[in-house]
Each structure stands twice: as structure tokens, then as C-alpha cells.
Amino acid sequence: MAVEAIAVGAENVYRPQQDSWLLIDALERSDAVTGRRVVDLCSGSGVVAIAAAELGASAVTALDISPHAVRCTQANALAAQVDVEAILGSWTQVLEHEPFDVAVCNPPYVPVGPETHRGTVSATGPMASWDGGPDGRLVLDPLCRSAAAMLAEGGSLFLVQSDFADTEQSLTALRAGGLEAKIFATQRIPFGPVLRGQTRWLRDSGRLLPGHVEERLVVIRADKP
């Protein structure tokens, strides 16, 4: 797919990595996108939004708090020759729109120690793309609580995260909101630069055993009956 070549304006934007590709692969295998209205939350470079458009979504909206990310999404969508409406704003703004058929999200989910935590969810620097706060759930918790409200009947959420941010807590919160949630895809990957930088914090907080240098990524699918 054309998304593999996306790099425009990526200097200040989260570059597509394994979690992005795992999320896109899940969308491809789900057959949930074609002919449906899709919203990409925390869109970054726009790689997932563009993939949804290429998979035949009837309309795609992308939200991000970073002006760099919005410009990057617009440029990459133009290069890929697909229509994506890129909007500057928090993922919470999705609740101001009519419910979507499909919501996709690669949120900040890395547990970050207090010495490096950026301190505010409104920050738009590079850390904003991965800093999930001390437990990795700074965005995940409110997102999971709000998921049902952003979906139309029969709609689906596809959410990628690391096990270090407590996958079971996400599943529990989504189910409490009335959604049918399950792990849809998984992948084990070596630590990248971000997690290597947080190794001490992960060990100190009991999330990482000595000698472990891999994380498990998961894509959760949550369907609204």
C-alpha cells in the first residue's frame, strides 16, 4: 500500500512503527472499513487514516493535537491521492461529531517515569505521541470510557497499545461501557529507543522483569451491538 512510503513532515511527528503497521494489518483483516465513516484519533503522520481511505472508507477524519501532525497528515494524504479531513484538536472532539462507524487509535501508551513525564496532556512536542503518564493510561482510561459514545450502532473501535499499559484494564473498561471487546491481533517486538529510555522506570514500577527486552503489542477490537 502507498502508506509504506509516507515520511513527509515527519521530523516533529511520530513516525510509523510496528504499532502503526499492526493496527493497519488489523483493519485489513477485519474487513470493517469499506463503505464506512472512519475517524483516526491521535493520527500522527496520518498513516492509519490514509490506510483506511485506501481500504475504501466512505469518509475519513483524522484528529491530532499537534499542528505538525495535522500538516503532515494533509501532505501525506495529498501524496497518497486520498481524501482525509485532518482536524487540529484533542481526540475528545470526536464526541462533538455524529457517531462514527469505525474509530481507530494509536494513543500515547508508554508508562513514563516522573523524571521524563511531560506533565500535561496538551503538550504537542514529540513526547506527546508516546507519553502515557506514570501508568501509560493517561489517554487510555478516558478513551476507553468514551468509546461507546463515539461509535454508531454496529460500529467498531480498533485500539493499539502495549501490555505495559495493562491490556486487561482496557478490555474491562470497554466492556463496562457496553462494548464487546477482545484482543484482535498481537505482536512481540524488541524494545525501541523510547522503551529503552524507560527501562529503569518499568522495572521500578514492577512492569518489567530483569532481562526482559521485548514488549507485546495488542490491537483491541471493541464492537457496539
Automatic annotation (TrEMBL):
GO process terms (BP): methylation
Keyword set, alphabetical order: Methyltransferase, S-adenosyl-L-methionine, Transferase
Superkingdom of source: Bacteria
SUPFAM superfamilies: S-adenosyl-L-methionine-dependent methyltransferases
InterPro entries assigned: DNA_methylase_N6_adenine_CS, Euk-Arch_PrmC-MTase, PrmC-related, SAM-dependent_MTases_sf
Protein name according to UniProt: Methyltransferase
GO molecular function: nucleic acid binding; protein methyltransferase activity; S-adenosylmethionine-dependent methyltransferase activity
The keyword Transferase is annotated on this UniProt entry: yes
Gene Ontology cellular component terms for the protein in this record: eRF1 methyltransferase complex
PANTHER family, alphabetized: METHYLTRANSFERASE N6AMT1
Entries under Pfam families matching the protein: PrmA
Family named by the database record: Belongs to the eukaryotic/archaeal PrmC-related family.
